[in-house]
Amino acid sequence: MKLKTLIAGVALAASLMTQAKAEYPEKPIEMILPWPALATSTDIIARKVAEQMDPILGQTIKVVNKPGGAAVVGTAEMANARPDGYTIGGLTIGPAVSQVAAGTTPYSIGDLEPIGMFATLPFLIAARGDAPFNDIKSLAEWSKSTGKQPILAHWGKATVPTLSTYRIAEKAGFTFNEVSYTKVDASQLLNGEADLAIVPVTSVIGGIKDGSLKGIVALTSGRMSALPDLQTVREQGMDFDVAIWTGLFAPKGTPKEIVDKLYSAMSKAVESKEVQEFSAESGILVYSLGPDETKAQMTSEYEAFRAVMGPLGLIKQ
Fold it and tell me: What percent of the chain has pLDDT over 70?
């Protein structure tokens, strides 16, 4: 009799545990965005995805901005939270990969449990419309034949787009001189300060349409809707993609079934009318990349950034 009672008790406990897992989420979820609450494309797209996940999950995702330390403060708080699925983060490649590679974060890549990537910001390398090159290959050939190093206007040597441009240049076989600006737009190209500029598509689309500017390469993993003819880095012969991406993450140790449920909700949210309309309006590429694929891409990017950062003296000793 006692044995039957024990077996029944174990079965009941197992059943209750299964039901508890199946009921996730049972309360609101907090999503930490580690940057200020500004009307930027990154902030807006993360909030829109969260809003569309609410009805799918049956709970509210409360978005909280926790800026500081170039997004490291909020990312660290998320990484140190209880791994129960009730604290997640909307992170970009900077605090999730490049700053980790630089050795400036109190967490490692392994402390971030990928739920999945969902967006890529539309950046590109642009030049004047009369530049004697049109893509990476002709840029490299021009540099070699003239002995000139193009001047690159960028946002900072340690930023992801600039590090990615170093990767491109090394692979293509040319070098460049670089100048950092607080704000990079069409002006550095049009006034002759720079031969190349790393810019968001919104700041140069007008000049590209009127012919005063041209796109050299899209710094995205897929073609941009605003410039559908502009090839990506991979399409121009490189064996890697460049993407200034945003994704969802949870603390290390979050149960797989919770990660999978959040990824499923994220994937459906990305396909929603609201998110798709904002994508078309802003030029942001939206998509769904799963947890395993996200982790693999981050590992590849981490190693690549370390290789570039070392010679530039950007790794903290």
Answer: 93
Q: Give the tens place of pLDDT for each residue, 46-99.
A: 999 999 999 999 999 999 999 999 999 999 999 999 999 999 999 999 999 999
pTM of the model: 0.89
Distances (CA, A) of 57 to 22, 89, 241, 278: 12, 16, 32, 22
206 pLDDT more than 60:
yes
Where do runs of H (alpha helix) occur along the chain?
2-22, 41-57, 72-79, 93, 99-101, 136-146, 160-172, 187-190, 205-210, 256-270, 273-282, 291-312
Q: Which distant-in-sequence residues (6+ apart) come within 8 Å of 183 by Cβ? A: none
Q: Give me the amino acid identity at 220.
A: T
Give, as one character, the DSSP assignment of residue 308.
Answer: H
Q: Which residue has the tokens 């840029």?
A: 139
Q: CB neighbours of 284 closer than 8 A, spacing ≥ 6?
A: 41, 45, 119, 120, 121, 122, 278
**pLDDT (tens digit per residue) in 242-277:** 999 999 999 999 999 999 999 999 999 999 999 999
Strands 123-128 and 213-218: antiparallel
Query: Which range (28-42, 71-85, 115-129) has the least confidence?
Result: 28-42
Cβ partners under 8 Å of residue 160, min gap 6:
93, 94, 97, 98, 244
3-state secondary structure 129-147: CCCCCCCHHHHHHHHHHHC
Single-letter amino acid code for the residue at 277: E
Q: Looking at residue 253, what DSSP letter applies?
A: T
Distance CA(287)–CA(267), nearest Å, equals 8
Q: φ and ψ at 200, to 5 degrees?
A: -75, 150
Place of tokens 């039957």: 4
DSSP letter for 232, please. B
Calculate the dihedral angle through the C-alpha atoms of 127, 129, 130, 135, rounding to the nearest 10 degrees.
50
